[in-house]
């Protein structure tokens, strides 16, 4: 039980008690349509998760203190996840849905538990934030490492052993390393609302945004600073998925997502045959909420 999260929820519900005079013993007075499942069916899997992200972003902007109808709308749609089947979705739809769902879980966890403020609370936060999804219990940790990163490398081969064959992604895409936003202050402060029909461009844009704020290139010292996720998941940037990947493999990929002087300097260093010193920036184990890109 997180005092910060539960207090915010109780404060929201008190609006209904004090200002609208509604008794919680009479659920019908909330005027919740009994056909909300039909609404969810009409939205489709991606529409449901997009609506959830819209709801939780609105709740987050209000620090969780919102009219109870917004909370109820969010929780109604959340309950539908348990019977949502996505195994047969096209890959672009599944990727968009799962990225949006991960960001819903992070923001919802921030409201209920409070964001993790140190490395010591990081693991507990992401393993505790769980939904029933497609008839299975899925934590935010598992969604990241066993579903979104199922085809990518993991920090340890002995970690995150659970399998979710109906949910997991099996096509490698290094850009996911820059698009899975856990709310760390090392990550961008905004996320897109991922859409299947624009997914490739959105993954590129999110990668550009992440690298623009975290990569530093010093041509005189022949030195490059990369975000720490590049070190954690280094083999994702190699042409083959193995443990022999080098920082240079990552640089050859990253350079295409840089702009201006950084891109020109790194391209020169990669083509002139000289040594390049690579270091990885610290990761900030302190989270905050994020907003919607373009809003």
Task: Provide structural commentary.
This protein has 295 residues and is mainly α. The N terminus is likely disordered. The protein contains eleven helices and seven strands. Strand 1 and strand 2 form a beta hairpin. It is globular, with a radius of gyration of 21 Å. Helices cover 48% and strands 8% of the residues. Helix 1 packs across helix 4, helix 2 packs across helix 3 and helix 2 packs across helix 4. Strands 4-5-6 form a three-stranded mixed sheet.
The number of helical segments is 11
Q: Count of DSSP E strands?
A: 7
Name the beta content range.
Answer: 5-15%
Tell me, briefly, the overall form: globular
Kindly name the structural category: mainly alpha
What's the story with the biggest beta sheet?
Answer: 3 strands, mixed
| Strand adjacency order, main sheet | 4-5-6
Oligomer: single chain
Measure the end-to-end span: 32 Å
Tell me, rounded to a whole number, the average pLDDT. Answer: 85
Binned, the helix content reads 40-55%
Q: Gyration radius, to the nearest Å?
A: 21 Å
H/E series: HHHHHEEHHEHEEHHHEE
Low-confidence parts: 1-6, 19-34
Keyword list:
single chain; about 300 residues; mainly alpha; three-stranded mixed β-sheet; two-stranded antiparallel ribbon; disordered N terminus
